[in-house]
């Protein structure tokens, strides 16, 4: 196959590990024929696993991970971007950031926060005041563990 100075960008989904098209192009600035037809530019979240307004948290074992690779646990958590910035005390996420790797201990903490939120909402419903508890976490797991 001949090379070109233009390539179609693909990424590998961090959730399902499948390669997908991003509908983006890369261009060799020197206009040299250096690219194959498709070039994988790293990790992302495929359209099947992307949810608008959410960031995907991928569970990892930090003790088994290093700078070259991460040891994934298989856990994924979808959390609203606004909740992520509040909980993890970040001023904001880059609008292109689709996922973050996260320690399994942090996932356990998010699960605890979600249980507390649900209990608070349930207590509010039973008291008859019609007001649900605070929406502090608004995280949901996809059931993979």
Radius of gyration: 20 Å
Q: Helix share of residues?
A: 10-25%
Name the structural class. Answer: alpha/beta
Termini separation comes to 41 Å
- Average pLDDT number: 83
> Total strand count, please?
7
Order of helices and strands: EEEEEHEHE
Oligomer: single chain
- How many helical stretches? 2
Biggest β-sheet: count, sense, barrel?
Answer: 4 strands, mixed
Overall 3D geometry? elongated
Topology:
Elements: E1 6-13, E2 19-27, E3 38-44, E4 54-60, E5 72-80, H1 81-87, E6 99-103, H2 104-127, E7 139-141
Parallel strand pairs: 1-3, 4-6
Antiparallel strand pairs: 1-2, 4-5, 5-7
Task: Write a brief caption for the model.
With 145 residues, this protein is of the alpha/beta class. It has two helices and seven strands, in the order E-E-E-E-E-H-E-H-E.
Key attributes of the depicted protein:
145 residues, 2 domains, 4-stranded mixed β-sheet, 21% helix, elongated
Descriptive overview:
- The protein has 145 residues and is α/β, with parallel strands linked by helices.
- 21% of the residues lie in helices and 33% in strands.
- The protein has helices at residues 81-87, 104-127; strands at residues 6-13, 19-27, 38-44, 54-60, 72-80, 99-103, 139-141.
- A 4-stranded mixed β-sheet has the order 6-4-5-7. The chain has a 3-stranded mixed β-sheet with strand order 2-1-3, with no helix packed on it.
- Strand 1 and strand 2 form a beta hairpin.
- The N and C termini lie far apart (41 Å).
- Residues 130-139 have low confidence and may be disordered.
């Amino acid at each position: 196959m001949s090379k070109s100075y233009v390539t179609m960008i693909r990424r590998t989904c961090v959730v399902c590990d499948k390669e997908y098209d991003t509908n983006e192009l890369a261009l060799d600035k020197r206009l040299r024929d250096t690219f194959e037809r498709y070039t994988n530019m790293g990790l992302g979240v495929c359209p099947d696993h992307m949810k608008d307004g959410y960031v995907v948290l991928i569970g990892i074992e930090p003790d088994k991970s290093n700078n070259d690779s991460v040891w994934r646990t298989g856990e994924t958590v979808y959390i609203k971007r606004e909740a992520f910035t509040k909980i993890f005390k970040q001023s904001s996420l880059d609008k292109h950031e689709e996922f973050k790797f996260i320690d399994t201990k942090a996932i356990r903490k998010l699960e605890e926060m979600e249980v507390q939120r649900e209990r608070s909402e349930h207590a509010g419903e039973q008291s008859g005041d019609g007001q649900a508890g605070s929406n502090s976490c608004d995280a949901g797991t996809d059931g993979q563990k």
